[in-house]
Amino acid sequence: MSAKVFISYSHQDLDRDWIQAFASALRDRDVGVWLDDWEIKPGDRIADAIETGLLGSDAIIAVIPSAAIKRPNLYFELGVAVGANKRLILVVDPSSADAIPFDLRQRRWIAMEGPEETARQVAEAIGAPG
């Protein structure tokens, strides 16, 4: 595996089938993926598991559909990424890009498309093979 990424997303705002397909497509491109549904086991403290996943990843992939722009947990995970000097790649619903806070809009982001195409672009951005 070339790099390990932590996928940050809102359960309330993103189709679970899309996120599972996206994460699987990244794995198919030899990217190590930390996805909460795959990594947090029954009985685990969620906050501890997320912190371990964030700190153990090379990059944070923040998937931000339009409804997630105002979710505080998104900004917590982004803050950890920035504070830990992790690479931060935003996957954004283009229709809501103007609503992203100014400091995040200063980063080049990837338009949220189908899971396969989005995974291809993310893998390319982190230099993964395939």
Question: Can you offer a commentary on this structure?
Answer:
There is one protein chain. Helix 1 packs across helix 6 (115-126). With 130 residues, this protein is of the alpha/beta class. Helix 4 links the parallel strand 3 and strand 4. It has helices at residues 16-28, 36-39, 46-55, 72-83, 102-105, 115-126, and strands at 4-8, 32-34, 59-64, 87-92, 110-111. The chain is globular. The protein has one domain: Rossmann fold, CATH 3.40.50.10140. It has a 5-stranded parallel β-sheet with strand order 2-1-3-4-5, sandwiched between helices.
Measured as a percent range, the helix fraction is 40-55%
Just name the CATH architecture.
Answer: 3-Layer(aba) Sandwich
Q: What count of structural domains? A: 1
Q: Provide a count of the helices.
A: 6
What's the CATH first level? Alpha Beta
Name the shape in a single word.
globular
Question: How many beta-strand elements?
Answer: 5
Q: CATH fold name, please?
A: Rossmann fold
| Major β-sheet strand ordering | 2-1-3-4-5
Distance between the termini: 11 Å
SS-based class: alpha/beta
Please, what is the CATH homologous superfamily?
Toll/interleukin-1 receptor homology (TIR) domain
Rounded mean pLDDT score? 86
**Rg (C-alpha, Å):** 14 Å
